[in-house]
């Protein structure tokens, strides 16, 4: 091995384990409602950013950039009466279903972080968390993620699934039209 190569090898970083994801860049304008749209997703921003144009990047790491804004005590996988900090507990609905709380533990880690960030951001902006509705949404998200894992070998991509459902819908629509035409021509 050459001396030059011996010097360079320790300085190299390890090869990436995941393929490089090309990020989407945009320059959204923050509206009066403090929302900016990046890659078909709405992001809530502080009041100081209203009416400003921002440079934004959307990729799989976007949620990771938001995670540091969530206080340690709000980084929970179960938002319940006993786990939520007292200063945030008042933002959750108290209609009898709050005792069960919102359980994020069955969601994949990136999705769990994003939902936890959304909960914190709603509270930070002075909103309230509709606990029963959020519990149902999170439960359904978990079910869908399980279904996707079970059926991942059957369908290779979401686009293939969309094409399949679109062709099924089109065939059903064509049959309905044919049936309507045959009835109306009698």
What does this 3D model show about the protein?
There is one protein chain. The protein has 186 residues and is mainly α. The strands form 3 sheets. The protein has a two-stranded antiparallel ribbon. It has a two-stranded antiparallel ribbon with strand order 2-3. Strands 5-6 form a two-stranded antiparallel sheet. The protein has 2 domains: 17-60, no CATH class; 62-153, no CATH class. 9% of the residues are buried. It is built from 6 helices and 6 strands. It has helices at 3-11, 62-66, 86-89, 109-124, 131-150, 158-184, and strands at residues 24-26, 35-38, 41-44, 56-58, 78-79, 102-103.
**Total helical segments:** 6
Mean pLDDT comes to 75
State the end-to-end CA separation: 89 Å
Question: How many strands appear in the DSSP assignment?
Answer: 6
Q: Given the helix and strand composition, which structural class is it? A: mainly alpha
State the assembly state of the protein chains: single chain
Strand content: 5-15%
Q: What is the count of distinct domains?
A: 2
Principal-axes shape call:
extended
Kindly report the spatial arrangement of strands forming the biggest sheet.
1-4
Series of secondary-structure elements, N-terminal to C-terminal? HEEEEHEHEHHH
- Rounded to an integer in angstroms, the radius of gyration calculated over CA atoms is 24 Å
Largest sheet: 2 strands, antiparallel
Proportion of helical residues: 40-55%
User: Which residues sit in consecutive blocks of at least 5 with pLDDT less than 50?
Assistant: 155-159, 175-186
């Amino acid at each position: 091995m050459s001396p030059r190569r011996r010097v360079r090898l320790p300085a190299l970083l390890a090869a990436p384990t995941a393929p490089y994801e090309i990020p989407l860049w945009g320059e959204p304008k923050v509206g009066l409602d403090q929302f900016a749209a990046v890659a078909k997703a709405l992001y809530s921003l502080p009041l100081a950013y209203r009416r400003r144009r921002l440079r934004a990047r959307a990729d799989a790491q976007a949620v990771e950039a938001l995670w540091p804004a969530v206080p340690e005590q709000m980084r929970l996988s179960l938002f319940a009466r006993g786990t939520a900090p007292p200063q945030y507990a008042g933002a959750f609905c108290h209609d009898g279903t709050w005792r069960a709380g919102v359980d994020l533990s069955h969601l994949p880690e990136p999705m769990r972080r994003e939902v936890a960030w959304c909960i914190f951001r709603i509270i930070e902006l002075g909103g309230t968390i509709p606990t029963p509705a959020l519990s149902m949404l999170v439960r359904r998200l978990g079910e869908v993620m399980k279904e996707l894992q079970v059926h991942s070998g059957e369908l290779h991509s979401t686009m293939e699934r969309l094409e399949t459902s679109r062709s099924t819908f089109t065939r059903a629509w064509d049959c309905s039209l044919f049936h309507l035409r045959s009835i109306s021509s009698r």
